[in-house]
Amino acid sequence: MIMEDLRKATRVPFSAPIEQILIYDSGSPKLGNTAVFNARTLDISLSGISFETKTKIDPASMVYFIFSVPTVEGNRRIGCDGYVAFSKSKGTNCIAGIHFVDITQEDSEVINTFIESHR
Question: φ, ψ for residue 111 (rounded to 5)?
C-alpha cells in the first residue's frame, strides 16, 4: 500500500513557500541553524501539508511552521504546530509531510475553502 492510500483527507496541489519551519527540542522550538528556509509546499489537505526542501527533517519531529494560503481577500498567513508524518529523500532534496496538530478553526476553514475551490 502506498502512502497516498493511507491518507484520509483529500489533498490538492498547492505550491507556495513555507516561510519558516522550527524543529522542537525538549518542548521549545530550536532557533538558529535548525530553522528550515527555502521549503516549498507540494500539496495540502485539512489534516496536513507536504513540502520539498534541501534540508533533511526526521520523521516524528515536532515542528512549528508558517505558510500562507491565498484567499479572495488576499493571502492568509497561517502558523501552527505539527509533526513530521513522513520524510524521504528525492535526489538531493527531502520530501516531507507535516500533520497539523494545533491549528485554529478559522485557519482550518481557510484551508477547506482553498481545497474546495481547487478540486
Answer: -65, -45
Could you give the CA distance from residue 119 to residue 110 in angstroms, rounded to a whole number?
A: 15
Q: Which three cell numbers stand for residue 52?
A: 520539498
Read off the CATH number of the domain in which 39 is found: 2.40.10.220
- Distance, CA of 99 to CA of 82 (rounded, Å): 5
Instruction: Report pLDDT for 71.
Output: 95
What is the extent of the structural domain holding 51?
3-117
Distance CA 69, CA 23 (A): 22
Amino acid in the structure at residue 32: G
What predicted TM-score, i.e. pTM, was given to this entire model?
0.84
H/E element holding 43? strand 39-44
| pLDDT-above-70 percentage for the chain | 83
Name the one residue in this structure whose C-alpha cell is 497539523: 100
